[in-house]
What we know:
heterodimer; A: 112 residues; alpha/beta
Amino acid sequence: MEITEQKSTGVVTLRLSGRLDTTTAQAFEDTILGRIESGERRVVIDLAQLDYISSAGLRVIVLAGKRLSAANGRMVLCSLKDRVREVFDIAGFSSIFSIYGSHDDATRGLQA
Amino acid sequence: MSHHALSITCPNRLAAIGKAAELIEVFGAAHGLSPEVVFKLTLALDEVVTNIISHAYDDEDEHQIAIRVALDGEGVSVRVEDDGRAFNPLDVPRPDLGLDLAKRPIGGLGVHIVRSVMDALEYRREDDRNILVMRKRTGDGSNEGARRIE
């Protein structure tokens, strides 16, 4: 898995690619919790290049979402591939997270 | 029909799970399983073996997890056998997916994923080993009326 970061107008975007599973979840956890700790409050998780997610990845997303909410911040997700969307649906994530079709929509949603 | 089965010995290291998944992908492609079915098999296996490696062992020793994937007339089964402490995934309570984010537990979705992507799970404890058999029906259902003669 690779994580690339981009920041513009107060929104930090983390783009994940590859596989988010037990072997890679810790790196994602360290990155996103680090950003929250350093003061980021508006976060887009862009999953356009993510091919696979297991419960280890879902765990980090819940953890980060909770941390941000508790800090009056907000996290949204975008551009899920079908396989990732399927796992999100199994986990009932559409009712607890805002999920957008594109990065532009996600950024707009975050700023609204 | 031994050629319609695949046996994998997976050591209790998380990095080994990917290799097992790759072997199942090759087996699935060779036997005409749909990418959707193969995805669900490998996801369920990932969750189950991750649980075993993370929670089943009290020591730091190497253990072998025996995985057997087999095709039969109704679909595919994945049998996972380990010598860790007794753990019946069927005893894990179903998560409440209606909770809002603040009330959601962190983690605990692995067994729920396994239940969701597979059609049936059976667990038994035998000779100090956990044996979990997961079944997935394949095909479009058109073979449901055509019973295989064993």
